[in-house]
Amino acid sequence: MQLLLESAINDPNLGQASSKRFIVDNCKSIYFAGHESTAVAASWCLMLLALHPDWQAQIRAEIAEVCGDNMPDADSITKMKWMTMVIQETLRLYPPAAFVSREALEEIQVGNFIVPKGVCIWTLIPTLHRDTDIWGPDANQFKPERFENGVSKACKFPQAYIPFGLGPRLCLGRNFAMVQLKIILSLIISKFTFTLSPTYRHFPVYRMIVEPGDGVHIRIQKI
Ligand code: HEM
Questions:
Q1: Binding positions for heme (predicted)?
Q2: What percentage of the chain reaches a pLDDT higher than 90?
């Protein structure tokens, strides 16, 4: 980001107004794409773990095993298998990004459909992620174990699991987001137990991102 901003300021080909607009646009993109989505994903993870103390305990044990008394690092993060499954399942049930969109730059055929030039196709991620034909009758349940043998074994078509999109415009920050989520959750779960507060109201809302409408209220206790 810093490199981008410095090169925009120093680029003689961009006028002052253009370089300012370029900088503001990029700050907005990174703030929106890179901050809110991960923060909201962390909130959904905490909500689901508060509801499922068994998974909370499982992950706590895993963190103790792979980190010991140390902070999570690049090595221990790759060993967090149960943690990865919980995050994957959270992103399946509550994908922060509600859709991915593509515009046909020329007429194309997709399966039996002819898509005329200029048409935009929106793929609704939550709909794909909860389709019982793809995920089975328990599609609406929180079951991280479905990811135990990877995405391809969790559902009928791996292309149906797209919390970070798919193809050449796949989320640029996917790996970074997963690392951030693992660190945040490890630090919280290793020090606290938590349950959902009775004041929590479950109503996911779409505000550019699908987020908990009234936040996530949890009761937290130091271990
Ligand atoms: C849990 C967190 C995140 C989720 C669920 C998420 C989801 C997505 C989705 C669905 C897309 C559209 C992909 C497509 O059209 O196929 C996207 C694009 C993008 N994301 Fe993320 N994202 C997350 C975190 C981040 C982070 C941390 C960053 C940067 C630090 C980031 C940067 C971007 C950028 C730059 C794009 C546009 C890529 C392009 O058009 O080539 N995202 N993200």
A1: 171
A2: 80
Taking the C-alpha atoms of residue 60 and residue 128, their distance in angstroms, rounded to an integer, is 31
**Structural tokens at position 54:** 């068994």
| Angle at which helices 53-67 and 174-191 cross, to 10° | 100
User: Mean pLDDT of all residues in the chain?
Assistant: 93
| Partner residues linked to 115 by β-bridges | 108
Using a 6 Å cutoff on CB, does residue 161 contact ligand 1? Answer: no
- Ligand 1 center from residue 190 Cα (angstroms): 28
Closest ligand 1 atom, CA of 181? 1
150: which DSSP letter?
Answer: -
> pTM for this one?
0.92
Q: What number of other Cβ atoms are within 10 A of residue 35's Cβ?
A: 12
| 170 C-beta closer than 6 A to ligand 1 | yes
Query: What is the DSSP secondary-structure string of 17-71?
Result: HHHHHHHHHHHHHHHIIIIIHHHHHHHHHHHHHHH-HHHHHHHHHHHHHHHTTSP
User: Residue 205 pairs with which residues in a beta bridge?
Assistant: 211
Using N-to-C axis directions, what is the helix angle for 81-93 and 53-67, rounded to 10°?
140
ipTM of the modeled complex: 0.99
Give the pLDDT of residue 174.
Answer: 95
**How many other C-beta atoms can be found within 10 angstroms of the C-beta atom of residue 112?**
5
Query: Residue 32 pLDDT more than 80?
Result: no
Q: Identify any residues that bridge with 124 across adjacent strands, giving them in sequence order.
A: 99
Q: Is the CB of 126 under 6 A from ligand 1?
A: no
